[in-house]
Write a structure and sequence with these properties.
- The structure is a single chain.
- This protein has two domains: 5-90, no CATH class; 94-190, OB fold (Dihydrolipoamide Acetyltransferase, E2P) (Beta Barrel).
- Helices cover 31% and strands 26% of the residues.
- The two termini are 34 Å apart.
- The chain has 192 residues and is of the alpha/beta class.
- It has helices spanning 12-23, 27-32, 37-47, 50-56, 70-81, 100-105, 148-153, and strands at residues 5-7, 60-62, 95-96, 109-116, 119-122, 126-130, 140-144, 165-175, 177-182, 188-190.
- The strands form two sheets. Strands 3, 4, 5, 6, 7, 8, 9 and 10 form an eight-stranded mixed β-sheet that branches. A two-stranded parallel sheet has the order 1-2.
Length: 192
């Protein structure tokens, strides 16, 4: 199944989708069946720890947010290392920044990409982090100049990330090569 639950507040809608996922019922069909008692019973069982349960079983991905929940990130990482749920699928594995052809095939989707920053360049609107020698074709990320104070406040200095291994999550699109716009420090994890 290609659908994924991206956890963000509020999560009631995601609870509904999760039940549909686990039950093998399409969301459109489930909405038409007026919530049978079995659904209400299952939904109530999941309601207490839905985000945690979905993350621990690998059926959810944490969306970056201004108030990140570290427990959620830890649960996602544990499920990913154990290749549970989505993480067992090649489609949801973390992509390498060097896989530009694959990344371009997956544009307009939420992706998690890892790589080594080879160059940083502060231009008029963005701080660009490039992951290979040709920014016109290779994977890059951009941080709006206006958002750089958020990084400083978080104790991060993206200008100094040359030769650092990082992981970035966000919506992948094509801007020259594959590109992710970073709006908040929660989207990036420095690995070394």
């Amino acid at each position: 199944m290609k659908h994924v639950i991206l956890l963000a507040y509020p999560y009631r809608f995601f609870l509904f989708c999760a039940f549909c996922w686990f039950s093998g019922i399409s969301a459109a069909y489930a909405a038409d069946i007026w919530t049978p008692p079995a659904f209400r019973e299952q939904a109530n069982k999941l309601a207490d720890n839905t985000p945690e349960a979905l993350l621990a079983t690998g059926f959810a991905v944490v969306l970056p947010s201004p108030a990140p929940n570290q427990n959620w990130s830890d649960l996602e990482e544990t499920a990913r290392q154990a290749e549970k749920g989505l993480w067992a699928s090649d489609e949801w594995r973390i992509k390498s920044a060097a896989e530009t052809d694959l990344l371009l095939q997956q544009k307009n989707q939420f992706q998690i990409v890892r790589g080594t920053v080879t160059k940083t360049a502060l231009k008029s609107e963005f701080l660009y982090l490039n992951f290979a020698s040709d920014w016109r074709t290779d994977f890059s990320i951009g941080i709006r100049r206006a958002n750089l104070p958020l990084f400083r406040k978080a104790g991060l200095s993206p200008q100094d990330w040359r030769d650092k291994d990082i992981e970035v999550r966000g919506w992948l699109f094509k801007l020259n090569g594959p590109f992710i716009t970073v709006t908040h420090p929660a989207q990036i994890r420095v690995l070394d």
